[in-house]
Amino acid sequence: MTKKDPSRAPLIAVAVFVIVAALGSVVWLLVGMLRGADARRVEVVQGGNVLYTYDLATASPQTVRIEAPDGGWNEFTIADGEIRMTAADCPDQTCVHMGPLRAENLPIVCLPHQLVIRFEDADT
Ligand SMILES: [Zn+2]
Q: What separation in Å is there between the alpha carbon of 17 and the centre of ligand 1?
């Protein structure tokens, strides 16, 4: 029997769509969980050397002052699961104005002091 049954085609299309959508949302959730877990680890880098690493999910609230080799300084604060530059003596203050670290591809950078605060897996 080669005659097609046109009444079934829409049902099959809907079923395929539902299955694909369900699989897609499961994968999306898993990827989101993995990315979320990775994205909590941050590192503070000065001139290419990692000074500190933190897990924002477990780090206790604190403010840390970093002296730059040229005599300048930066101060970053960890609070509420976020890290941000709260003070610096650099002339542009760009690092302070960036606010809390949000995205892997947008690290907090203090160019005058060669200081970077970023998520740990930003380079991978
Ligand atoms: Zn700065």
A: 51
